[in-house]
Design brief:
alpha/beta; seven-stranded mixed sheet; 10 strands; 263 residues; globular
Amino acid sequence: MTSLEPVLDKDGVRLTVEDAVATVSLTNPAKRNVQSPALWRALTDAGRSLPGDVRVVVLRAEGTSFSAGLDRQAFTPEGFDGEPSFMDLARGSDTEFDAAIAEYQEGFVWLRRNDIVSIAAVQGHAIGAGFQLALACDLRIVASDVQFAMRETSLGLVPDLTGTHPLVGLVGYARALEICATGRFVQAEEAERTGLANLVVPGEELDAAVRDLAGALLAAPRDAVIETKALLQGAAGRSFEAQRTAERASQARRLRDLAGLAD
């Protein structure tokens, strides 16, 4: 992607914008882009900083790994400077704990907004929180060296950064359970075969493949893409008849808009 003046650059997250494409980069390759509450808040800020004309968001990472997951410092008694440690959170009330995790999740949920299409460009390790960040995006293009793993269960925890819903939706309950409970690696061939990856390419072709997909997404009228995304996102929760009804309502809105008859 073209190097541009950052809109935001803090705590391991950089946001740049070129026309209708925003690029969110993880920028701590020396530590394999490990994650922390500060990084999650920076991701939230990136979502809030998007100009209104952005249609595609590319999530990428510098270095050889997309993200090796949660920084293990989170599990130490001292935690991160200026942050409550996870042990402190565990000692707090259920309400306080729930509010803290909900805040962390905000860095992930905006990537599924109806008004954008998000693409994760994933290379190397995407472990735990890194896997969940890739799952937060609508689409995933991965390098042939990719290694996904959900290691939370192996640590006595559960995935809690919004990754469980998209994982089950993509690979089904049984495979999702097996991936999470074993913590094993899912590599490129399986990721593409099971729907975790839309496309696998050699690492040196990753950026070009993402640019091509972004260009293809921008070719369709924005309002039609927004309406279609909303229609597809709701499909799993609707019956066949309810989805038929939703299709008709969506098409009526599009045709009225095209005819200049919108309310």
